[in-house]
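Two records follow; treat each independently.
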Amino acid sequence: MRRSIAYREPEPFSAINTTPLIDVMLVLLIMMIITIPTATHKLPVELPQGPPGQVLDAPHRLDIAANGALAWDGRAIADAELPVLLAAIVAADGVLHFKADEAARYERFAEVLTTVKRAGVTKLGFVGNERMAFD
């Protein structure tokens, strides 16, 4: 007696290969983890709340020279004079433009900026950074 071996057609594989799906999901998860902290970073900014067309007084200008000397609207001043001038700006709700020479020491800049902050100046603009602007 001879046994006959029956030939059967291969059946289709009915399970889904989930490895590519898991790979794609892991890549998307990593991309979300990297990008979410930058999207949620906030920097609070107080925007002006005045009627449009409001004319402001001319801003005062505070300069720090390369040697650390101070100038107020082009006139040389002593360090002791600065708090009095800043108090006048705060009382008049004025604007202060602040410019430091490139060669000025950072310690001097920080010292003067601390004095400005302690005086309560809220309308402060930094002048002379145009070369660092992004295009």
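The next record belongs to a different protein.
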Amino acid sequence: MTASHGELPASNVTQDYLKAIYAAVEWGGPATSVSALAARMGVSASTASETVRRLADEGLVHHERYGGISLTSRGRHAALAMVRRHRLIETLLVEHLGYEWDEVHDEAEVLEHAVSDLLVERVDALLGHPVRDPHGDPIPSPDGEVSLPPTRPLSETPAGDGGHVVRISDAEPQVLRHLADVGVRLDAHVTVVEARPYVGTTLFTVTQPGQAVGDAVELGDPAVAAVWVTR
């Protein structure tokens, strides 16, 4: 079944691929390649290539041979609808069902395919129409509008500078747990004190909203790479 402009593709696989292609570029990354998409989806390169060809035939993606994969207008519409479902479900699980922020991604990956449009809008209303999920990722509006704050990766922030935490990648649950344990959460202010490349860590001061004096925190490179801050 090929999706029209106003409906989601029927295939869960198609929905997942479109969401992954969108996620690759959402925070300024390059367009994904077939090999990168295969790694993200946990399939062989040949399987990913075959699926991308099918998506292109259905008018959902553009793909130049050996080039990056991008979404068509219809593909982006469908991807944003799935992103909206996923992030609203994550927010519901954290705010109303007692989940921790490192537990919700896999649950939302399953539930996003099962809920109806009506349920998604009821969840949105219940939550008070949130604009970001528990990790700071923006929740698209019903008509597909997305508002990204001006940000930069914490890893690219020089010593003596910093910003408020606006996004933390949910790719690695153990990293999320560690960051929560040391107080690196959304809206905390992080100041870079000293990079220590010889041991693969960076020293920061982390100040919570309303806190007068920050706490010293040392983070390894994988944890630093997961954090985005305001410019």
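Discussion point: The CA atoms of residues 96 and 127 lie 9 Å apart. How would you locate this feature using only the token line?
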